[in-house]
Amino acid sequence: MKSLLITGANRGLGLGMVKYILKQNTSNKIIATCRNVSEELKTLAVENKNLFIVNLDLTKMSSIDEISPQITKIVGDQGLNVLINNAGISTKFTKLALVKAEQLLDNLTINTVAPIILTKTLLPTLKQASDINKEKPMGVQRAAVINMSSILGSIEQNDKGGFYPYRCSKAALNAATKSMSIDLKKENILVVSMHPGWVKTDMGGKNAPLDVDTSISGIFNTITKLGENDTGKFLQYDGTELPW
């Protein structure tokens, strides 16, 4: 991966991904997008000249439309190898009697609509990377979109109910992933949905069994091995295939 873009990179899994890649190979161009820049992310950018922070408010479609020229300027004629649609919100603990329309709409906007529109916006630079690396097989070394989903988006494994805003938004993201994988296969752009596990973050909570480092190392170990036969799959951080 010569370049990758990670949304929601100011904290949690997104920030952990930035730190992981910086430790692995400092020659990668890492684009970290977020609405509010954390002090830790600012410090990392000062210390690493290959880390670029780009402001992106995923609640505003105009903000997504405006990002393309900035990304093109950073990656140049090499294009963007990997887009990780990581940013998300969660209104998980909502029973049917208590669920509100604004909760559903907020989760769908950030978790489903934004990744679709951002992928559409950055498609030219993803295609550019795929074309330039045409001697390489389909995968992250060529061009890929990784949509960070959740096992709570699995319809088959839903045996507890509830969680309406989050479940619905992630199930919809999984549907989008499948369509993207079909639409972009001719461009040799790999697309998968990835469940990071239940991780100790602000969203996952302190009772989660996985730490950030274990989840992230698993995610990158998994995605670096993916090929043409994997596009369109729903995978756990450790590579286990999950049911839709």
Automatic annotation (TrEMBL):
GO cellular component terms given for this protein: cytoplasm
Molecular-function annotations in GO: carbonyl reductase (NADPH) activity
Organism: Arctia plantaginis
PANTHER family: NADB-LER2 (PTHR43544:SF7), SHORT-CHAIN DEHYDROGENASE/REDUCTASE (PTHR43544)
CDD domains per UniProt: carb_red_sniffer_like_SDR_c
Protein name, entry field: C-factor
UniProt keyword annotations, A-Z: NADP, Oxidoreductase
UniProt xrefs under InterPro entries: Fungal_SecMetab_SDRs, NAD(P)-bd_dom_sf, SDR_fam
